[in-house]
Amino acid sequence: MAGLDSANLRTLLGDVASGRLQLPDFQRDWVWDDDRIRAIIATVTLDYPLGVTMTLETGGASRFRTRTLTGAESAAGREPGLLLLDGQQRLTSLFQALYVEDAPVKTVDTRGKPVRRWYYVDIAKATGSPSDRDESIVSVPEDRILRTDFGRKVVHDLSDTSGECGAGLFPLRIVFDTQRVNAWRRAFERADEARNFDLWATFEDQVLHPVRSFQVPMINLSSSTPMDAVCAVFERVNTGGVPLNVFELLTASYAGDLAYTSRTGDYYDLLSTWHSIKEHLEERFEVFGHLDDGLSNSDFLQAVALVRTWNRKQQDPTVGVSCKRRDLLELPLDDFEELSPRLREAFEWIGMFLLTQCIVRAEDLPYRTQVVPLAAVRAILGDELDHPEARQKITQWYWCGVLGEMYGGSTETRFTRDVEQLIAWIRDDGEVPDTIADAYFFPERLRTLKTRNSAAYKGIFALLIRQGAVDWHYTDGPMAPGRLVEYGVDVRQIFPKNWVRRNLDERYPAGSVINKTPLSLRAAQALSGAPAAYLDPLAAAADMRPEWFDDVISTHLIDAKALRTNDYVAFFEARATALEDLVYQAMGKRTTVVRGTPDDEGER
Questions:
Q1: Any idea of the CA torsion for 107, 109, 115, 119, to the nearest 10 degrees?
Q2: How many degrees, rounded to 5, is the angle at CA 415 between CA 411 and CA 417?
Q3: Would you say residue 94 has pLDDT above 60?
Q4: CA–CA separation, 119 vs 158, rounded Å?
Q5: Which stretches within 60-208 are classed as H helix?
Q6: How many CA atoms lie within 13 A of 467 on its CB side?
Q7: For the residues 125-152, what does the mean pLDDT come to?
């Protein structure tokens, strides 16, 4: 599968220039800054270990769209023999600095500002102590003029050979061009024969020879290496420290699909396809987020893989329903093309379903992951989910997942179980899914639900709106999902935290969801002080009698009398009971009360 070898640096950079060595298109852009480039050049001149480079032979089953390394664009269009999996930053830096003679290196300075630099080595410093080698590598501006005094004074003009020789700065861009090196040497020796003849001999022995003979350790993966192994290897050895996204690997793989290219005359652009799908969904439903957040490309691919493996299992029972990384990497382009429109429609259906549950914005979605198996089920069952009984079952499953906090850990196994069990249950051919059977909501959990990090916290927020909560400013009817964004509806504090802390102990936490409710921004602006102080002004602003406004308050499952008397304990206990009932109603089951709380909220 792999062999360890070494390649001469000059030969390797020549392969980059010719296009024989290219990048698979899942590789990210070259990003090294000026300081790191100088450091790696010093490493090579000292013949110190550089680190292993990894390549993949082309021509195997894992076909990728390719691109040249930065600086070698003239070789674009050539079919490569090797793909560079690890070592892009190092080889690109060395290629531009040591091999490209007619263009400066495009890099960035320490502040991230784009700059263009030429690289030189100070001959006198380089022939001194090896500990000074880093200092001998000089970075020069694009115009090849070194200045001091804030750019007002020219120290060295390196725009021609005589200036370079006079400064004793050798241009590293010609290091592998023997004829140019010899011509430069003659000019350098003529500049000061008494001194420079011996200095050059030392420089050639201590600097130029190590560069020309430098060996790069290389692991070469054979063309038969499967794609999941390529992905795994890349993640383990990539020195950039950025995990490889399966979507990026598939993008390069689909673009290299010869069958598609021969059929259409162009490569398949998975990224554009995904952007089109995501933009279509987010235009209709804010819950899916914007292009860079919300529903992710991995979520979509997992849903496709679940449907594909479910379909295969109907033909071959030995095949498992799955959406692990291997399943995504083995997803054929033909199957993706066939299934992706169905999944797009399935996510549209989910957007409408979430609206009916009063979940409108991406930040209010309890679990993004839970929509993955739901999309697969919708794509498989289609209109069957529109029947009232099926809709009721899906709704119960959804809220058991949210309020039981079932999607807070590893999800791939639950995805598989939920798809198979939900389909069988909806078709009256199976038992209640595990996500429903195993879901529990502990009453004490209400006290610890304090932030949006908890799925159940977001769920209770949506349930309060769904069951008919009326805003305390816009009192003309229950809050409608379509007006939540317009009115700036969010979770608002009922009793102020400071007031609670001054008057009560920690048995009745002020930050709990029990002491919060969904209200518009306009209503929240009137919540000044304890409830007894702000309720009558709110009622007056709404042109309502106090007793009528109490009816509005009760739509939030709040005891208005307790609010008017600032009886926080009575309010807290009554609201806790009401929220428990709301939760159990949504779950379709009443959990046996077990004192003690599961783990406090973590990132969901």
A1: -70
A2: 120
A3: yes
A4: 11
A5: 88-98, 123-126, 133-136, 161-167, 178-191, 193-203
A6: 20
A7: 87
Answer yes or no: are the C-beta atoms of 237 and 290 closer than 8 Å: no
Q: Which of 571, 450, 462, 470 is closest to 513 using CA atoms? A: 450
Burial 365-399 (b: 16+ CB within 10 A, else e): bbbbbbbbbbbbbbbbbeeebeeeebeebbebbbb
Cα gap 463→468, rounded to integer Å: 9
Phi/psi of residue 492, nearest 5 degrees = -120, 150
- CA nearest 408: which of 439, 448, 442? 439
What would the two tokens of residue 555 be?
Answer: 């739509």
Tokens of 469: 């909560």
CB 228 within 8 A of CB 23: no
Longest dimension (CA), the chain: 106
Q: Reduced to 3 states, what is the DSSP secondary structure of residue 325? A: helix
Q: Which residues contact 333 (CB under 8 A, 6 or more apart)?
A: 254, 257, 259, 260, 268
pLDDT 10s digits, 243-252: 557 887 788 7
- Rounded CA separation 54/221 (Å): 7
